[in-house]
User: What shape does this take?
Amino acid sequence: ALVTDGRMSGASGKVPAAIHVCPEALDGGPLCRVRDGDVIRVDGETGELRVLVDQAEFDSRDAISAPSDLGIGCGRELFGFLRAAFSSAEKGASVFTEALEALK
Assistant: This one.
């Protein structure tokens, strides 16, 4: 299964996917403490995701932060102001936010 707090197109299909998980990792959500190799139980009936790691170990993990500069161009920087203005998935992933108004 695929678990992400990201936005995706074409996520439906043969692979079970939990997308737009909230709160997002960037906002300190639990996904910022998930590590490669962690087993995650996905319960589609209750809407729960459970990381099968000892709770004390999980709580003690440092949150992974977003990389500050990947040194990648290809035009991504042209839309950085829009990415900064979008609300979280939990709030509808809308660009019509106070952050956008503040950019004027």
